[in-house]
Amino acid sequence: MDALFTLNNIRYDYANTAQPALHDVSMTIMRGQRVAIMGANGSGKSTLLRILDGLYFPKSGTITAFGEPLDEHHLMDDTYAHAFRKRVAFVFQNPDVQLFNPTVYDEVAFGPLQMRWDKEKIARSVAETLDMLEISHLRDRAPHRLSGGEKKRVAIASVLILDPEVILLDEPTAALDPKSQSMVVDFLVGWANSGKTIVTATHDLDTVPDIADDAYIFQQGTIVAHDTPANLLQNHELLLAANLIHAHHHHHDGVPHTHPHFHLGHEHDHSGEI
Questions:
Q1: Rounded distance, CA 81 to CA 12, Å?
Q2: pTM, to two decimals
Q3: Whole-angstrom Cα distance, residue 258 to residue 246?
Q4: Taking the chain, what is the end-to-end CA distance rounded to the nearest angstrom?
Q5: What pLDDT, in 10s, does the model give residues 183-242?
Q6: What angle (nearest 5°) sits at the alpha carbon of residue 113, between those of residues 95 and 96?
Q7: How far is CA 171 from CA 23, 181, 273, in A?
Q8: Do the Cβ atoms of 221 and 21 come closer than 8 Å?
């Protein structure tokens, strides 16, 4: 494997905040890796994904992508930007900020149209992508009228059709019903088998062993741990400190007991079937 992203001492600040969103972050993401970025809300994991996607640029530190600097200067070059956007895809946590076309077909075809694919290739690729994500029946539906799980799969389809080398996902199972969560996880497992690189920001610990073979824990904008998912998930003290689990207090025969409780921050939307 070779390095796709290399970050050295990255710092990022939002305006009017005393605490940096990211501070002294250094990491390397290798080709073909499945990486989980774990952390509670506000830990910096979403900011990291935006830096990897070239949407944000660090205040200090350096980042390279595919062996070249990833910065505003390079992304102003149309040739560089075109190649980078084709290789790296980002699926936002809230699909409503990503979906804007009148139909699902138009949504998935939008990227290829910008890449100036011919009409026959677009039609064939859209049909194949919709079928792969089991949403062909939604082809003529308006995205804003779909359930949360359906919107998420349309958002994934709209970036996967371009066959990116890297996919960045921000909380892909957040606010989904259990069936929708399972379908998204199953897809990510299958897609990783194609040798693609997947970076997932999540606080959903249940899914991490299935979707990642390398993991980081972020807390207050810094990396506090880096290991395999199995090792990190066994470290209950670390997970408690990072606010990824909480302690559950109860009594047995009048004697108080405390044990860690997973599933922190799970939100399930049962308003619509996937």
A1: 22
A2: 0.86
A3: 10
A4: 36
A5: 888 888 877 677 889 999 998 898 899 999 999 999 999 999 999 999 999 999 999 999
A6: 10
A7: 21, 11, 19
A8: yes
